[in-house]
């Protein structure tokens, strides 16, 4: 699953983005990768490993919901069965 979100640009500042990727690794675990920053500048990232899909999916949804509350808008989603926005 992949979700790309961004904010509206403010003045001359480029928009901020937040990307969340959830994928299964080769050993059966689940990797949650988060990347955020301002378009055109250096990004920050964080990786978390989960043993259970439900735990990983819960963390993905919490990260998504937190960014939606902060004013981010979904620009692209991939790998979803249906709408998951809060």
Mean pLDDT: 91
Classify the helix fraction into a percent range. 10-25%
Count the helices. How many? 1
Q: According to CATH, what is the topology?
A: q64v53_bacfr protein fold
Secondary structural class: alpha+beta
The CATH superfamily is: WGR domain
By DSSP, the count of extended strands is: 5
Radius of gyration: 13 Å
| Pattern of helices and strands | EEEEHE
**End-to-end distance, in Å?**
17 Å
What is the makeup of the main sheet?
5 strands, antiparallel
**Shape label:** elongated
Number of domains: 1
**CATH 2nd-level architecture:** Single Sheet
Low-pLDDT sequence parts: 82-86
Draw up the topology in text.
Layout: E1 2-6, E2 16-24, E3 30-38, E4 44-50, H1 53-69, E5 73-78
Antiparallel strand pairs: 1-2, 1-5, 2-3, 3-4
Question: Can you give me a brief rundown of this structure?
Answer:
This protein has 86 residues and is of the alpha+beta class.
Q: Can you characterise this structure?
A:
By secondary structure, the chain is of the alpha+beta class. The protein has one domain: q64v53_bacfr protein fold (Single Sheet), CATH 2.20.140. It is built from 1 helix and 5 strands. A hairpin with a 5-residue loop joins strand 3 and strand 4. The chain is elongated. The two termini are 17 Å apart. 16% of the residues are buried.
């Amino acid at each position: 699953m992949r979700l790309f979100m961004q904010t509206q640009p403010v003045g001359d500042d480029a928009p901020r983005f937040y990307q969340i990727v959830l994928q299964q690794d080769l050993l059966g675990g689940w990797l949650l990768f988060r990347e955020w920053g301002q378009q055109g500048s250096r990004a920050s990232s964080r990786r978390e490993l989960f043993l259970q899909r439900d735990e990983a999916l819960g963390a993905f949804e919490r990260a998504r919901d937190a960014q939606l509350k902060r004013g981010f808008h979904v620009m692209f989603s991939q790998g979803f069965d249906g709408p998951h926005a809060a």
